Request: fold
Amino acid sequence: MGLFYTNKQIRKINFMIDQTQINFFQQHGAICLKGYFIDWVDKLRNGIEKLISNPSPRERSYTPKDGSAPFFQDLCNWQRIKEFEEFIYKSDAGKLASKLMQSNTARFFHDHVLVKEPGSSIVTPWHQDQSYYCTSGLQTISFWIPLDKVSIETTLNCISGSHKWNKLHKPKRFDGTDLFKNDKSEEVPDIDSNLNNYNILSWPIEPGDAIGFNFRTLHGAPANNGSLSRRRVFSARWVGDDAIFVDKKGKGSPPFDHLTLMDGEKLTGDDFPLIYNSNYWDI
Ligand SMILES: O=C(O)CCC(=O)C(=O)O
Reply:
């Protein structure tokens, strides 16, 4: 890893988060954080352009059959894109994650870039990220950080309280195919035909805002076809004290094929750096 920061450097914290926000996130499984990452917008945009011009073997982009613009996606690039690594180590995201997760520690899980080009007709289907992951635990958060203005029509939608349903639905690729072979788990319910049954949280977004959501929260996002602007998103995903490795016995997403951790072991190792620990850094 190219960057090393002392605890003092990591401790430069500029944000405020109060108990009302923590309670909101714990209760609803999602929260809108206004302006928290404003200082990182240009840097993350640069990182995304570098990534698009040199994607990883994990790139999974979707090109709509109707000829509209693509939906670019790539994962786990912080070890080679310096702007992403700096964000993880130097921004306040780790401490913010630990506070919202109510965890003493925040460990980085993975980065994910999701760019819907203007006019893209690809809808992100409803899903729970936890179903795709080689980790489990209740203390989790993803920061979905748009680098463009996102209207209420195209923003992320999260189902309030779904992180507490105690149920993980079948993971599917965004083209509708099953992620794991012979997966008999329950399908995601037909939310779009029954919108009145759910309390859906969504917020219009300015660059530098973030939506934080639990890995178990059901979420999805509309197409970008009503919009003339790009929808570039950097997503940073975090786990807390209770994170363990889960052997999904198949190629999850991210794949993390090279890990040698045993089922049930604490999630540690170079891929998952410990970024924040309140026992040492909350002086
Ligand atoms: O950006 C999107 O379209 C979907 C985001 C998402 O599913 C995620 O960040 O887990």
Notes: Residues 41-53 form the longest helix (13 residues).
